Amino acid sequence: MKRLFRLAAGASLAAALAAPASAQDGGASWAITNATVVVGDGGEPIPNGTVVVRAGKVVAAGSGVAVPAGIPVIDAKGGWVTPGLVVAVTDIGLFDVEGVSESNDSSAKGSPFNAALDISPAINADAQHIQVSRAGGVTRAAVAPSGSTSVFAGQGAIIDLGADPRPIVRARAFQYVELGEDGARLAGGSRVSAQALFRNALREARDLSLRTPLRGSKAPSAVGQGDDIPADPRLGEARVARDEDVLLTRFDAAALGPVVNGTQPLYIHVERAADIRSVLALKREFPRLRMVLVGCAEGWLAAADISAAGVPVIAKPLTDLPAAFEQLASTQSNVGRMAAAGVKVALGDFNDQPRYAPQYAGNLVALTRMPGASGLTWGKAFAAISSVPAEIIGMGDRFGSLSPGHAGDVVIWDGDPLELTSAPVAVYIDGIAQPLDNHQTRLRERYRNPVEGALPKAYDW
């Protein structure tokens, strides 16, 4: 009964807030008062707080915040208000049905290219996985490709999950690499081969970027201009002579130029502690690499090395039993131990279910109450699915928290967002109310109350 009451109260609150919102300078303006406010910066929830969004940007959030005159004000009656969830390393938007190859663009098994692959043109803003994730409170995500024929999977994109046809926030945002057991398989069956191929590729890219362009033309740009969709650094590239004994295509080598120059982050999937240390050692040869480690099931064993290198981690928090030999030291205390050692850790690598992020974060809070286990405080656990992943993907100054000037990505929940029984009742991206319906909710409504006779329409376009 309590759950039903919270849902009804939350639904009425969301409807009241969405209805009077006025467009202003391309965004909505409104305020929520008497809310349990979560800024998302690692601090604890703030009771009796206020959130003000104007022209699609957060003006202020916290206690003692004055509401500007002339904008709609909603009394949250103690309800929870948080920034939108940010999930790093997922594949939403890249497929409709994962097992149907015709609808799956997450990998390119027959392509002659690898590092040059750019997934941004394939992102489908209408994909059901995006709609379901949005209904779960996810407002931004870093979408990564999957490796299929090379350790280099290609270039990922940062997206927003708004209900519009323009999901790309930043194209070619990072390069994704598979090492460890997956990299060994893709490189011919050995980590030795994977490391050799990886280093060779970086050297070829470095050599190409250092060569003098012919006939006075400009060298390939290390990074594009603009935040929304940067210019492709390979466009207009001068044709320069290359050594004959190269393994990469010119297109792939040019795509890796920003990686070796340090202008494009390099996401590296590794799990075993020994592999983590091998990857960190790459910075001695390529000091400009901006590495982000993904996975790190045994990261707690190498936490001191990761912290000393200043490399952030995107970890899957519930890997507590080994699914492979490289995960033999898996433990749910992994994230807590890495954080305690000074590693910047975000929760991610959720593939097509980023909406489970609050559940994972809540489990880390529960671990703090278990003898001998290591978890995170409530505030730090929520930050691990909001501001910390935003910082790691290079967007910490734009979204991920309710800090002044950040995007008005706001979620209203019907209870504590880290409790399994809680759910969003309203989601805003850039201050604009978003639809929460999707194929799953429509099916639920269709079969909620079975009756004799014809069923309601399955589709209504």
TrEMBL record:
In its keyword annotation, does this UniProt entry include Signal?
yes
Q: Where is the signal peptide?
A: 1-23
Q: Where is this region: Disordered?
A: 214-233
> Pfam families, from UniProt?
Amidohydro_3
Matching SUPFAM superfamilies = Composite domain of metallo-dependent hydrolases (SSF51338), Metallo-dependent hydrolases (SSF51556)
Report the residue ranges that make up the Amidohydrolase domain in this protein: 316-431
Show the InterPro entries listed in the entry: Amidohydro_3, Metal-dep_hydrolase_composite, Metal_Hydrolase, Metallo-dep_Hydrolase
User: Is the Signal keyword given for this protein?
Assistant: yes
The protein's UniProt keywords, in alphabetical order, are: Signal
Name of the protein in question = Amidohydrolase family protein
- Name the source organism: Novosphingobium tardum
